[in-house]
């Protein structure tokens, strides 16, 4: 019996061939191969007998059960379909074909245990990302929480009604790990109602439930000091901790009999803090500025060190004494204000009139003093810190603004020459050998090594070790002469104490000088009480 097939081979369903040895995809991609295979399959004796049998069943009106057709399918019937390949010539399947073959996957009743690589791409597994931002701070782990609660219970044991403010210092230091002079500020932060008592529950609620326990110390201090709705610290926020420092520090006990100098000391410390830490210079000290400063380290040092004068950053009483006395020397009428004529006498007339005019034009910093033509104590603190330590960044910024006459962010040759002209005139008046500006300009370029030789930027100055000397050359004759005739003893002293700043060395020298003058005056008067006015000396 001859069988002929007169169909469209391209429309032939490859699944109907039931060839386990050949992928249906390969057959569909090559329709002429399918035609050859189909012709070959029809020519097989087994196919002929099977077709005859099916025809007989169809003529008798029976049901056709052939796997792979659109009729009633039966997977078991597929085993009776003859194969065109001999068993011995069947090639082995690819290792991936059993799991990745579309034909095999189509025959599966359920999803694969291994899964298809394509399915993994189309349906990626959702990765659970843990919470990393907490609006009110990260909650404390259970172990840390329990350990802290145990210590809290020990401190509050026997104080069922709570602790008073004078009993709170150890809680601040031992539990909160903060400087002890923060106890009053912390106490009032918790006791917002002003009851005068902090109970165990209220402390737990603020320190543990409020997630203060897990914050870093900078964030803790920032939160305690600032006002509830504020986003920065102002000078007023530091006064409570300074008052407690003055009341409790053994190195400042001698000031308790002179409240007016306690206030001046606290003001000076705050001015120094904002000079160095508030880099924006806007009086609004941010958390970022606090974290990038050495203020917290200095606070911890002041809490541990009994000799306050060893805390050189911000808190040294000797430094305050020097600043205040220098201001008092210039303020001849003692109205706590100084003018241009007063300032020109600073450092034995070291400064030029031109630089003093720039200072009083308030270009480097706007005065807080509201009296026109006058400089207040806070303005003087900024000036003296800038003048005596020109290696610090605040000082470089201060004097850069003074020299930058047009405010375009660069210092040009003409601007430097404008200020040096007065220096040159002063040298001639003092019968000193003048140094021509062309020579000075070459010296400055060698000292700074600016990116562009035609002008100097603030970045150039911050990158050089001799930048402060450039300003001394332009407007401070005494320091310019000292730089030209460097004292080997001072150079050796600087190398032996590299941790000391120019301000530290200046304050130390001046304190010794002022102390000797005070002792000499005491000896000449035969009494230690030599001041007529209550505000004339910080003793």
Overview of this structure, please?
With 539 residues, the protein is an all-alpha fold. Helix content is 52%, strand content 1%. It contains 28 helices and two strands. It has a two-stranded antiparallel ribbon with strand order 1-2. Helix 13 crosses helix 20. The longest helix is centred in the last third of the chain and has 24 residues. The radius of gyration is 44 Å and the shape is flat.
Task: Please tell me what the overall shape is.
Answer: flat
Given helix and strand content, the structural type is mainly alpha
What proportion of the residues is helical, as a percent range? 40-55%
- Which blocks of ≥5 consecutive residues have pLDDT under 50? 67-80, 84-91, 96-109, 528-539
- The span between the termini is 132 Å
Rg, Cα atoms, Å: 44 Å
Number of strands: 2
Order of helices and strands: HHHHHHHHHHHHHHHHHHHHHEHHEHHHHH
Spatial order of the strands forming the largest sheet? 1-2
Largest sheet, if any? 2 strands, antiparallel
What do the pLDDT scores average to? Answer: 82
Total of helices: 28
Strand content: under 5%
């Amino acid at each position: 019996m001859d069988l002929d097939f007169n169909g469209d081979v391209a429309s032939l369903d490859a699944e109907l061939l039931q060839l386990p040895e050949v992928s249906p995809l390969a057959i569909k991609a090559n329709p002429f191969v399918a035609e050859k295979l189909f012709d070959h399959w029809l020519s097989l004796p087994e196919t002929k007998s099977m077709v005859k049998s099916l025809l007989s069943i169809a003529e008798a009106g029976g049901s056709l059960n052939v796997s792979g057709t659109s009729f009633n399918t039966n997977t078991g019937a597929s085993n009776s379909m003859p194969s065109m390949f001999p068993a011995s010539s069947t090639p082995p399947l690819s290792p991936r074909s059993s799991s990745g073959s579309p034909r095999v996957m189509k025959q599966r009743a359920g999803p694969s245990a291994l899964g298809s690589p394509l399915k993994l791409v189309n349906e990626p597994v959702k990765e659970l990302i843990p919470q990393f931002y907490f609006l009110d701070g990260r909650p404390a782990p259970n172990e840390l929480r329990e350990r802290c609660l145990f210590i809290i219970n020990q401190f509050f044991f026997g104080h069922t009604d709570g602790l008073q403010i004078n009993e709170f210092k150890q809680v601040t230091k031992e539990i909160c790990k903060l400087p002890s002079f923060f106890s009053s500020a912390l106490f009032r932060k918790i006791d917002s109602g002003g009851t005068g008592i902090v109970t165990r529950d209220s402390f737990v609620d603020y320190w543990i439930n409020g997630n203060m326990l897990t914050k870093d110390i900078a964030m803790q201090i920032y939160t305690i000091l600032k006002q509830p709705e504020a986003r920065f610290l102002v000078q007023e926020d530091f006064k409570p901790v300074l008052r407690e420092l003055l009341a409790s520090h053994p190195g400042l006990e001698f000031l308790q009999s002179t409240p007016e100098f306690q206030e001046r000391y606290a003001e000076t410390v705050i001015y120094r803090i904002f000079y160095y830490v508030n880099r924006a210079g806007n009086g609004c000290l941010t958390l970022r500025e606090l974290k990038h400063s050495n203020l917290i380290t200095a606070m911890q040092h002041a809490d541990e060190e009994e000799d306050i004068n060893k805390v050189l950053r911000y808190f040294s009483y000797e430094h305050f004494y020097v600043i205040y006395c220098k201001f008092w020397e210039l303020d001849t009428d003692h109205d706590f204000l100084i003018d241009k004529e007063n300032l020109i006498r600073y450092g034995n007339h070291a400064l030029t009139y031109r630089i003093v005019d720039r200072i009083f034009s308030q270009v480097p910093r706007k005065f807080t003093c509201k009296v026109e033509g006058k400089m207040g104590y806070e303005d003087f603190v900024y000036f003296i810190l800038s003048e005596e330590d020109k290696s610090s960044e605040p000082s470089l910024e201060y004097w850069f603004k003074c020299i930058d006459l047009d405010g375009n962010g660069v210092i040009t040759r003409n601007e430097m020459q404008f200020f040096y002209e007065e220096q040159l005139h002063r040298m001639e008046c003092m019968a000193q050998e003048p140094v021509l500006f062309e020579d000075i300009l070459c010296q400055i370029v060698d000292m700074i090594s600016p990116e562009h030789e035609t002008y100097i930027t603030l970045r150039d100055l911050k990158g050089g070790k001799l930048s402060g000397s450039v300003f001394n050359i332009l407007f401070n004759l005494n320091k310019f002469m000292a730089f030209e005739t460097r004292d080997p003893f001072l150079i050796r002293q600087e190398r032996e104490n590299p941790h000391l700043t120019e301000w530290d060395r200046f304050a130390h020298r001046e304190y010794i000088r002022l102390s000797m003058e005070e002792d000499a005056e005491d000896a000449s008067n035969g009494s230690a009480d030599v001041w007529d006015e209550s505000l004339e000396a910080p003793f």
